[in-house]
Input
Amino acid sequence: MNSNFKTKITPTVKLDKGLNEETVRSISRLKNEPSWMLEFRLKALALFNAKKMPAWGPDLSAINFDDLYYYIRSQDEQKKSWAEVPAEIKNTFERLGIPQAEREYLSGVEAQFESEVVYGSLKKELEEKGVIFSDTDSALQKYPEIFQKYFAKAVPPADNKFSALNSAVWSGGSFIYVPPNVRVAMPLQAYFRINERNMGQFERTLIIADCGSYINYVEGCTAPVYSATSLHAAVVEIFVEEGARVRYTTIQNWSGDVYNLVTKRSFVAKNGVMEWVDCNLGSKVTMKYPSIYLKGEGARGETLSLAYAKAGQNQDVGGKIFHLASDTSSRIVSKSVSAGSGVSTYRGLVKISSGVKDVKTNVICNALLLGKNSVANTYPFIEIASRDVSAGHEATVSKVDEEQLYYLMTRGLSKDQAQGLIVSGFIEPIAKELPMEYAVELNRLLEIDMKGSVG
Output
């Protein structure tokens, strides 16, 4: 997938650069939102202005909040028919393979271009079962009772500076509700595209899997390369009710001028299962730590994380799992690859509350270095306040084995091909969890990125 192309299109709405109260009021007014949402946004703006930038992790000092566009609308209304989408936007997603994927593989798809979802569809048989798959803005208007019950309950604006920013200027994103005991066997997909220079994208995704249901959701993200900074600061909230299961897969390939600063959090009820599969290949800086709160007995959580950092990239990723009930289990598997002067970091937390019993957790962090100047960091933190716990932790940092390289090259492979094969084997525990089409695409993207970046 070559995502580094730009689409020439004249927006129907483009607010001036900069963030202030008028920006927030304009966004809310353009969306015709209820008064409580405007009040929510303005309180979040005050929190954003009051909070300091993170004093830990990658350097974020290059972000200039006054030099960003916070809202751009590329068309006046969302389309349900692909034929109705403007040709320029349609061509963008055709080149990314989205309509073809919808026809061949998906239960439903949404496509977000800049600030708004431009296209959305859902298979009729799922609609008949009561499944809701819409953009978040429409859900606010059409399903206010469900929306207000869950919105901002997992990630409140005060959580961190960038969740406050998102809460003030959020636009677009996916809203999914799966009724009790309904299984959505084939994935739902959303695709997020930043096209404009100096763009800020702030989608808000909210997923509710009611009792005994199942949903598999996949999102992809790209942007063309500019010399100016863009910002992606999304919020994802997932509620897994009793006996339900959610798998959320991200494959991002942002360009090297995007700061990707995302807050993802899930609450899991009794006997529920939450699985994050998080693949991070692009961006200048990524800070993302999907978290799982195991709130009910028998709940299970898993975070599978892959980071690939080449020269000029800093991938600071990981996961957090909180055991708040007995008979809960969790697993974190982190794989990172650093090439050239790339920096990859695993930053994770497992916290087991006092009084819980029969808790199992295991953390595996593996880093692979592909060059003399590449860097891998690991910051695992496991806090245990209970005695009835089985906890394991494994961490390795390794370089490409020269004997393996030599052996593969004697079989006719070039050095790049040999290293690519070794990397493919290293990431296989993550790649095998992806749908086949996405696993193939992941390996292809890695192959492209590795050319000339190893040494």
User: Anything to note?
Assistant: The first helix runs from residue 21 to 30. The chain has a mean pLDDT of 84. The longest strand covers residues 359-370.
